[in-house]
Amino acid sequence: EGSEVETEWAGQRASRMRSYESASAASGTGRNFITHDSVRNQCALLNNQLTQLVDLKREAVSALDGISGLARNIDNSLRPVKEATEGLSRSLANIEKSLKRTAETFEQLEASRRLQHYIDQGLPRCTTIEMVEASVRDGDFELSDADVDDLARVQDYLSAVEKLEASLRFLDAHFGGIDSPRGTRERSRTRDSLNMALTHCEVEFSNRLMFVSQVEQCVQQETKVGDLAATMELRVDVLRHRRLTQQEEVPESPDKFVNSAKVAYLMERRKRELRILNLLAGAILAHGQGNASSEALFTSYADVRATSMGERVGRMMRSTLAEALGGPLESESEALEDLLGTKAEELQHMKWGGIQVHARVWIQYLEYTLAQVVSERSFARKIFMEERDCAAAFALVLNGNFATIASHATGIARSRKTPEKVFVLLDMLTAWEKERALAETLTSLGEHGGVAGQLASKVQEMYTMLVNSARDTYREFAMAVERDDVGGSREGKVEGTRKKVSGLIPTPTKGLRLILAGPQDGHQSQSSVPENATIHPLTAYLIQYCRRLQQYPSASRILNRRATGTTREEGEDLAGRMISRLLHTLLKNLKIKVQRLSHGKQASDGQDAQHFADVFMLNNANYILSRARCFEHAEALEQIGFFQEMRETVHRHKHSYLHASWRLSVEWLDMVSEKLGRHSALQGGKEQAESEKQLKQLLRQFQNTWKQRFRTQRAWFVPDPELRRDLRAKLTEYLLPGFARCATALDAYVTASGQSYWKRLFPLMWERELLEKQIEGQLFEGL
Predict the structure, then answer these.
(1) How far apart are CA 96 and CA 99, in angstroms?
(2) Taking 60 as the threshold, does the pLDDT of residue 78 lie above it?
(3) pLDDT tens, residue by residue, 286-336
(4) Collapsing DSSP states into helix, strand and coil, what is residue 626?
């Protein structure tokens, strides 16, 4: 309708324009002439046309509104149809997907049923050791077809297990949220088949692992016991380690171990079985049900390998047990079982002889166990791919052995403290540090946590406990040497009145009496100083003690808490200071002992007690000096000034003995010589008689003093020949010149005066040769 109106309006406009042009032409005014009427008519016409146009527009808008409403109605009518169409499309897609999933389900169910029969057949059985031994006896060193196919068959079986696990995962995902009896039944059947397959893997793993251990025993019979670890692994690092530890008969290359067709055949079988064990272990750990399956695998592995290692260690222990115990045994197996079965509590209260035996056995057991560490760790790495799994299995294998080692170490460490216990503990620690590389292998397990971490902690705690026990025992011994001087004053007291400290020996004095004197009388004298002033037993013991300490390069580091990380030079200096401190403590102890003895004898023996003390201290200081010069750390002792101090001590006691013991005698002789000159000038009278009386008194004092001291000091013993000769020479040099002057003057006076009775009164003054003979031949001989 709008088009027709517009066409009509255009036609009318064209007609009006023609009329206007014809009128203009008739009037002669042209196109530009417009009259008032014409304009009004035109405006009216335009107004009418605009009114019509507005009406037409209104009608057009109304028409368009109608069209829009009609379109909305059509759209509302078509929407349900569209939704229905989309729902139908989705239904068709779901149907297609369901059909596809159903096809996959039937395919998985069919595959599961096919694998069920394969799984039920189980893994190929491992060859028995009897068959291998029979082949060896027959000289048949070729692998059979079944043996060659074992690896491929195991791989096929494990591939089937993987497929079965994939089917189970599919069924769990498909039927997991659906209440389907058939689906539940199929899932249960598939899961049971997978569990059965893993059980077969675990059983076969255990069987083949036991077979490998038996093969190793056969190899061991063909090789030396000491070469077993290297024979098993054929690893260069094992040989390098054994060369570094200076073990004998170490071949240049691993190939020299395989020196027979039999050994080569057995090693080839072992190599193939290790590959199969690796596959089985990987499958069990990958498809197992969490930690329970892993623990079961590790436990099975540890049971077999621990038994095998225990047999190897036991065989080596039995071969050397009689030597360790110091005599033949009726049953080495029973003796070894009894020794290893001793509990820590029993060791703590065991006598010293038993402790020594168990310590020697402990050292051997530790060495033989550590000798298996490299081979067992390498063996575990061939089976378990993950280092954490390898560490866990390896730790379980060693757990039993190190539980025994730790238990015995605990018992020995907590046993009664004696001086000799230090050397036992040092022997144990030296055996541990001798295989430091292997020990660090154990302590490095701590980073893996779990059982491996527990084993590493146990090993570290055991080492720390042994070190602390050695330090405590040595410290108690040094304190006992220092405090032993107080023991004499308490020996009269009742034993129960002494204050006891838990874990220590009753008193230091008693402990030292036990190790030095052995069985003695029930009541000792107040001092244990030897009656002949010779070397004290404690001095001899401490010299041997220090000499034994130097046999342990790590003794200074172990026995000193602040010595960790010291260099070799620092360790020697520290060892020298430790020895110097101990020997100085000894001298202080001996000095107090002999001083107490001197005070006790002062009233009865006069000054002899002091002279005795000088000779006693001289003997001991000289003994320490002479023996310490032969020490391994003599250079360190020289650097810290120990020898200089000891030389000064020897010189001081020697000088003190000579002057304190014989100074008065020399002064008396000089006084006699001086008085004889004045006495000869006197001519009778009271003054001469008084002078003669004084001379006789001086000579009598000298003669009696000499006889008494010679009788006493000839019983004293100076064991060092050089010191004895020097002491006699010093005495001769100190005493005889004055004696000779006095004897010459006296002889001249007697000859001039004719008073021969002086020879009867003082025969010693005319027996110089006898005096020299007594000094040179009898003094300090302990007669």
Answers:
(1) 5
(2) yes
(3) 876 556 677 888 888 889 888 888 888 888 888 777 777 776 777 777 888
(4) helix
C-alpha span between 577 and 575 (Å, rounded): 5
Mean pLDDT over 44-68 rounds to: 86
Half-sphere exposure of 552 (CA within 13 A, CB side): 24
Predicted confidence (pLDDT) per residue in 371-394, tens digit: 788 788 888 888 888 888 888 888
Contact 13, 42 (CB under 8 A): no
CB 658 within 8 A of CB 732: no
For residues 215 and 308, the answer to whether their CB atoms sit within 8 Å is no
- Residue 602 is encoded by which pair of tokens? 């002062």
Alpha-carbon distance of 245 to 430, in angstroms, equals 13
Q: How far is CA 49 from CA 8, 14, 45, in A?
A: 11, 14, 6
Q: What is the DSSP letter of 447?
A: G
**Number of H helices and number of E strands within the chain?**
28, 0
Residue linked to tokens 């057949």 = 121
Which tokens belong to 12? 């009318």
Question: Taking 60 as the threshold, does the pLDDT of residue 177 lie above it?
Answer: no
Residue type present at position 434: K
User: How are the residues of the chain apportioned to helix, strand and coil, as percentages rounded to the nearest 5?
Assistant: 80, 0, 20
Angle 710-711-713 from CA coordinates, rounded to 5° = 60
Task: Give the CB-side neighbour count of residue 238, counting CA atoms within 13 A.
Answer: 25
Q: Residue type for 566, please?
A: T
Give pLDDT tens digits for 260-286. Answer: 677 777 888 888 888 888 888 888 888
CA-angle at 347, arms to 342 and 353, nearest 5° = 105
Say if CB 404 and CB 339 are below 8 A apart. Answer: no
Distance CA 66, CA 335 (A): 117
**Cα distance between residue 299 and residue 522, in whole Å:** 59
- Is 0.85 surpassed by the pTM of this model? no
